[in-house]
Amino acid sequence: MIFPDAPSPSGCSRARTFPTLTAIYASAERAKKASREADRLACGAWNYRMLGYKGPAQPSPTMADALNAGYGYLEVRCHGCDTHQTVALDIIRRPKATPVHELERYMRCKDCSQVRGYPYKRSHLVALRAKKISALHPPAVWWPGER
User: Fold this and answer.
1) What's the pLDDT tens digit per position in 128-145?
2) By Cβ atoms counted within 10 A, which residue in 8, 43, 45, 51 is the most buried?
3) CA distances from 106 to 66, 96, 101, 129, 140 (A)
């Protein structure tokens, strides 16, 4: 009779045999994929809510969820000068457990602040993005009405 904690005839314990380690790694990989898919769906739902109805921004996914889902940037629109900017989520000095909607209060428009001479805050969160705003990836368009 072989006990669970007794070494097997090959010299290694039963808990560390190859099929068990493979099953552990495979289940961990499946859990990572499921977590990434859940984060992607949560961020997609938040984007649809923000682009389709212009809010509400709460509840929102955390910065860690957005980064895990592949959304590395947050698009912000300034109400003062009507410009769209992207902010990289991986360089923001906040805990990764911070919800995205809490970042809105820290956003300042650089152009408006230079014109006025004081930090000007009138920004609105638009959406999470995978890439920065460029000619190939233009700013998001709010729907309905702005087409």
Assistant:
1) 999 988 877 888 876 555
2) 43
3) 18, 15, 10, 19, 21
- Terminal C-alpha separation, the chain: 75
DSSP-assigned beta bridge partners for residue 124: 77
**Confidence (pTM):** 0.75
d(C-alpha 53, C-alpha 51), whole Å: 6
Distance CA 68, CA 41 (A): 11
Please count the other Cβ atoms lying within 10 Å of the Cβ belonging to residue 62.
19
What is the token pair recorded at 89? 């989520």
Q: Environment class of residue 95 by beta-carbon count within 10 Å: exposed (0-12), middle (13-18) or buried (19+)?
A: exposed
pLDDT confidence of 15, banded at 50, 70, 90? low
